[in-house]
Recover the amino acids of this structure.
C-alpha cells in the first residue's frame, strides 16, 4: 500500500520544514442540515438554502423581500417542528448528518484498504456545516495535490449537483495553490448503484406479509420551467426508474414515478407524490403501496418526515391500508461498495 509522509522539498535548505505532499482528496458533498431545530439555526439554514439562485432563481429585488419579510419569519417554526420529530436528541444531530458521517467512515476504510494513506476522504455540506470551503482548506493543508469532488446526488440537477460544484469552485478560488480537481457526474445508471437499489427493494418486499400492489418511486421535485430550460433532472429520474424496473423484472403496472417537495406557486414536475398516492388509493383501489426515494443518498427530512409521515397520511386518509417506506441506501455495505467503485473509476489516471 502507498504511504504518504511529510518530507523536506528537494534542494531546499536544511532548515526548511517538512511538507506533506502527494495525497489525493475525495470530498463527499450532501445538501446540508441545520445545526439545531430551534428558530435561529433553522432561520440561518433556510436563509442560505432559499437564497441560492440555483434553487430559486427569481430576481433578488422580487424574492428577497418575500423571503426575509414573510417566509423566514414563519417557516423556521414549522420546519423546526418537522426536524424535531426526526432529530437524534441523544447525539443532538440530524439523521442526514449522522448517516453522512457513517458513509464517510465506511468509504474511508475502503479507500485505506485499497490505497493506504494516499487517499484522504472527508465530507462537506452545501448549506450549513461543515462548509465546503473549510473542508477544501483542510485537504489542501493536508497535502492533497488532487481533489475528487463527489456530490451525493444520483441524478444531476442544477439545484443540487450544480450548486454543490459551484460552491466547491468558489472555495478553490481562495487557494493560492489550487489542487487539480475532478467532479463526479450523475451516477444513477451505474450498474452497482442500480443493483444496490434493486436489492434494497427486494429485501424490503421479502419482509412483508403482503406484497405491495404498487412501488412509488418518489424523486425530489423541481419547477417544470427548469426542465424546459435544459435541466436533465426529469430525464435522469425517468431513466433511473426504467433501469430499476428492468433490473427487478417488473411490469409497468407495478412501478410508477412521482415527484415530491413542491414549493411556491409555480407548476412543478408531476405527478406530485402526495396527490398520486391518494389517487392510487381512491381511484385505483390500491390498498398496499411501497415508496422508495432514489434521489436521496441518505435519509433526511424529505424521507423520514415528508414521506413517512405526510405522504403516508395522504394515502391512508384516501383509503389506503398498508404503507411501506423503503429507506434510502444510507451506509448499507452494497451502497458503500457502489460509491467506492464510482470513486475508484473517477480516480483512474490519478492513482494506481
Amino acid at each position: 500500500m502507498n504511504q504518504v509522509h511529510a518530507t523536506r522539498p528537494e534542494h531546499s535548505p536544511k532548515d526548511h520544514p517538512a511538507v506533506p505532499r502527494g495525497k489525493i482528496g475525495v470530498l463527499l458533498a450532501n445538501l446540508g442540515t441545520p445545526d439545531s431545530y430551534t428558530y435561529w439555526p433553522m432561520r440561518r439554514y433556510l436563509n442560505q438554502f432559499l437564497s441560492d439562485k440555483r434553487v430559486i432563481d427569481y430576481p433578488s429585488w422580487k424574492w428577497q423581500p418575500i423571503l426575509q419579510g414573510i417566509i423566514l419569519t414563519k417557516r423556521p417554526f414549522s420546519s423546526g417542528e418537522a426536524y424535531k420529530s426526526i432529530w437524534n436528541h441523544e447525539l443532538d444531530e440530524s439523521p442526514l448528518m449522522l448517516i453522512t458521517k457513517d458513509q464517510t467512515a465506511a468509504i474511508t476504510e475502503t479507500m485505506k484498504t485499497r490505497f493506504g494513506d494516499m487517499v484522504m476522504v472527508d465530507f462537506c455540506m452545501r448549506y450549513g456545516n461543515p462548509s465546503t470551503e473549510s473542508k477544501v482548506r483542510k485537504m489542501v493543508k493536508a497535502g492533497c495535490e488532487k481533489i475528487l469532488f463527489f456530490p451525493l446526488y444520483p441524478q444531476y440537477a442544477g439545484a443540487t449537483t450544480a450548486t454543490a460544484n459551484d460552491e466547491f469552485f468558489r472555495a478553490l478560488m481562495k487557494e493560492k495553490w489550487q489542487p487539480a480537481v475532478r467532479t463526479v457526474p450523475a451516477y444513477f445508471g451505474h450498474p452497482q448503484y442500480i443493483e444496490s437499489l434493486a436489492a434494497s427493494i427486494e429485501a424490503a418486499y421479502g419482509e412483508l406479509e403482503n406484497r405491495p400492489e404498487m412501488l412509488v418511486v418518489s424523486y425530489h421535485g423541481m419547477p417544470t420551467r427548469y426542465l424546459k430550460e435544459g435541466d436533465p433532472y426529469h430525464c435522469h429520474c425517468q431513466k433511473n426508474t426504467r433501469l430499476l424496473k428492468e433490473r427487478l423484472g417488473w411490469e409497468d403496472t407495478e412501478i410508477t414515478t412521482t415527484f415530491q417537495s413542491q414549493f411556491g406557486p409555480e407548476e412543478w414536475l408531476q405527478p406530485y407524490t402526495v396527490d398520486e398516492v391518494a389517487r392510487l388509493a381512491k381511484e385505483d383501489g390500491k390498498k398496499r403501496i411501497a415508496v422508495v426515494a432514489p434521489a436521496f443518498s441518505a435519509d433526511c427530512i424529505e424521507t423520514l418526515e415528508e414521506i413517512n409521515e405526510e405522504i403516508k397520511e395522504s394515502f391512508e386518509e384516501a383509503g389506503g391500508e398498508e404503507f411501506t417506506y423503503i429507506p434510502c441506501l444510507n451506509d448499507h455495505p452494497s451502497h458503500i461498495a457502489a460509491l467506492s467503485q464510482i470513486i475508484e473509476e473517477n480516480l483512474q489516471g490519478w492513482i494506481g
About this structure: Residues 191-326 form a domain with the Rossmann fold fold (CATH 3.40.50.1400). The mean pLDDT is 95.
